[in-house]
Amino acid sequence: MNHRLLGRAGVLWGLLPAAGLFAQTSSADRLIINEVFYNTDKKSQEWVELVNPNTQAIDLAHWALRDSRKKQELSSSSYWVPGKSFILLSNMNLADSLQSRTLVVAGLPEWNNGGDEMVLYDANGAVSDSLVYSAEWGGGRFISLERLAWDGDSCDPNNWASCIDPAGHTAGRSNSVHAPERHSAVTLSVSPSPFSPDHDGIEDHAEIGYTLPMARAVVHIKIFDSTGRQVRYLRCNGSSGPQGSVIWDGADEQGRRCPIGVYIVYLQAIDESAGRVEQAKTLCVLAEKF
Ligand SMILES: [Ca+2]
Ligand SMILES: [Ca+2]
Predict the structure, then answer these.
(1) Same domain, yes or no: 135 and 94
(2) Is 122 contained in some domain?
(3) Rounded to whole angstroms, how far apart are CA atoms 71 and 57?
(4) Which ligand has the shortest distance to the CA of 173?
């Protein structure tokens, strides 16, 4: 069967990083914002955890961090962050209570509980990492907001979640929720693709099948168009075993048939008991016969 758009998937897929939705940035020579403890009673209890994912140490001299209102230099003299290690930034010395390495920065911005902007600059003024979080991304009163994947997009809400450690945070150590491998162990497939939801009884639905590397998980499946706009929340909070499938009828959230084009199928599987989150994405082509 012939379909329009057949063969164009690769072209459109190449355009997707420009949309920014799943853009991934190289982590070489930079520090990454890894955890934010923003919802506390006092500014002095807040902190930000940075991670140095590289093997070589990085000097924080003249690095800076800003929120939506002010930019604050972190250190006027050398302060080395060893390779593969964490550092907390705080207004107060939290070493006694958290037992982790802390750089005390008087004048560090206060992080708003509802959401805030956070931009980390290196000594040359280049942006090392940045995000604009909201309370909906995760975190809560004395519960931190944790990053899942170091090489994931800082601005992707799906790359952040509430800490599930009993302490409410993982200051100075690996996060309680994380995507451990660069390549997900999830398999995700769409069949048939292209499909043509024109109700002629032939290839009207796409079956999205998956296998998970966990016995039980809560699964979210979303459909995005090629500009990164979410068109359908196909499965929300669904309890799943190690494999499953869902049907997409080609309709958006309002039941309208989506335009022909290339769509992104995004799956997130969360195993809270193991503190494990896996993600995967694949393409699906919605076409029409001719
Ligand atoms: Ca706060
Ligand atoms: Ca941590």
Answers:
(1) yes
(2) yes
(3) 24
(4) 2
Mean pLDDT, residues 129-137? 93
In angstroms, the CA 267 to CA 150 distance is: 18
- Tell me the CATH number at 72: 2.60.40.1260
The tokens for 61 are 């001299």
Cite the DSSP H helix spans in 86-169: 95-98
**Which bound ligand lies closest to the C-alpha atom of 35?**
2
With beta carbons less than 8 A apart as the criterion, state whether 23 and 153 touch. yes
The number of the ligand nearest the C-alpha atom of 146 reads: 2
List, for residues 60-93, the tens digit of each pLDDT value: 999 999 998 999 999 999 999 999 999 999 998 7
Q: What is the pLDDT of residue 277?
A: 85
Distance 66 CA to ligand 1 centre (A): 14
Q: Do 99 and 186 share a domain, yes or no?
A: no
Instruction: Give the domain range for residue 128.
Output: 32-162
Quick one: 128 and 50 in the same domain? yes
Domain containing 13 — which CATH number? 2.60.40.4070
Ligand nearest to the Cα of 46, by number: 1
The CA 192 to ligand 2 mean position distance, Å, reads 41
CA 242 to chain centre: 22
pTM of the full predicted structure? 0.56
Contact (CB, 8 A) for 161 and 141:
no
16 and 39 housed in the same domain: no
Q: CB-based contacts of 39: which residues, under 8 Å, 6+ apart? A: 113, 135, 139, 140, 141, 142, 143
Please list all protein residues whose beta carbon sits less than 5 angstroms from ligand 1, which is an ion: 38, 111, 113
Residue 136 Cα to ligand 2 midpoint, Å, equals 19
Of 116, 133, 162, the last residue of a domain is 162
d(CA 264, CA 70): 37
